[in-house]
Amino acid sequence: MASSVNPTVRRRRLGQELRRLRELKGMTAEEVAERLLVSQSKISRLENGRRSISQRDVRDLCGVYEVEDVRIVDSLMQMAKDSRQQGWWHSFGDIPYSVYIGLETDAASLRAYEPQIIPGLLQTRPYAEALIRGALPETSPSDIQKRVEVRLRRQERVSSAESPLRLWTVLDEAALRRVVGGRQVMREQLENLAEMSQLPHVTVQVLPYEVGAHPGLNGQYAILEFPDAADSSVVYIEGVTSDLYLEKAADVQKYSVMYEHLRAQALNVDQSHQFIADIAKEYAR
In this protein, which residues make up the domain named HTH cro/C1-type (predicted)? Predict the structure, then answer.
């Protein structure tokens, strides 16, 4: 049964705390691995929150780090237990980007640059279906529907009345011009995009072709920020077979600066809204 506890975030916080304890002890990941007779890569994966961690692992690590405060050990053990629970997305089966969904579910804000498509959080069902079918031609109809349902469930963060996700997206004009699912689907999609962009917590800007070269030419990326100061920001870069998560402060800063340049070069909010509405009308002809 899915839990209200976000296992992805629990793993990240637990990993950060274990890394802090290791560094306080003045030990390297290699030294810890040698003490526990495990691989160094396992210690690294536990610390970066990319894999679940057992209470036994926590107990062993606390022993190596000589943590004597029982309250700290108990707290870490509880975090390990929580990190092994299932988030809402697990009810849909094996989702390739489940780590990202876990981060997005708990994020306070998301800044995204999309060069080719409408962002998943702002897609209509027909657009999402056509997009997934075209991007993954060997995917079965049932798996396509599963991915669509997950995408629509993710959108609840944007429509939430209590704690909506603060979404800022910069779109290349190509995302508006690429016909996905036919002209009718595109018209409805752009009308929906224009409507969503009017929400107080959603900002959409368009990078028109005339801008020329810009910092986003290397491809799509997203920057996630979290309500708890203990959770570092994450840069997410989607890949074909694997995804990349950057958490080092220097990396996040570099991508944040790039994003500021994209925002500065893009049309402003009002101009972007009109730009999207005009292209939507073109699809209606």
Answer: 18-73
Element (H, E) at 222: strand 221-225
How much is the pLDDT for 3? 45
The rounded distance, in Å, linking the Cα atoms of 18 and 199 is 40
Question: What is the C-alpha separation between 16 and 46, in angstroms, rounded?
Answer: 9
Task: State both tokens at 4.
Answer: 């209200």
The pTM for the full model equals: 0.79
Beta strand spans in 89-212 (E): 109-114, 166-172, 202-207
Length of the chain: 285
What CA–CA distance (Å, rounded) separates 105 from 14?
A: 18
Angle, nearest 10°, between helix axes 29-36 and 55-64?
A: 110
Nearest to 205 by CA among 123, 276, 110, 283: 276
Residue 119 CB partners (closer than 8 Å, separation 6+) = 112, 167, 169, 171
Render pLDDT for 101-120 as a digit per residue (tens, 0 to 9). Answer: 888 988 999 999 999 999 99
Backbone dihedral angles phi then psi of residue 237, each to the nearest 5 degrees:
-125, 115
Sign of the alpha-carbon torsion through 227, 224, 88, 116: positive
DSSP state at residue 5:
S
* Residue bearing tokens 């306070």: 108
Ranges of beta strands (E only) in 11-114 are 109-114
SS3 114: strand
Burial per residue of 99-135, b for 16 or more beta-carbon CB atoms within 10 angstroms, e otherwise: bbbbbbbbbeebbbbbbebbbbbbbbebbbbbbbbee
14's tokens? 């637990």
